[in-house]
Description:
mainly alpha
Amino acid sequence: MRDLFGLINEYLFWTEDRGLSDESIKYMIDLSIQSGVLATPLNSADVVDRTTLERALQLAARPAE
């Protein structure tokens, strides 16, 4: 995770806000297929669990108890 986080921060792999939009995920999937890291295409739902992500964002926005 540290390696991935470092790459995301150093290079503009993701959207300008560096979020996990469907477009940015598709870009990374396409890049992974072209580079040989992935053998078959995925869709964004295979990569990001939106329910978990949304809940994590809700919890992160809450003040500390």
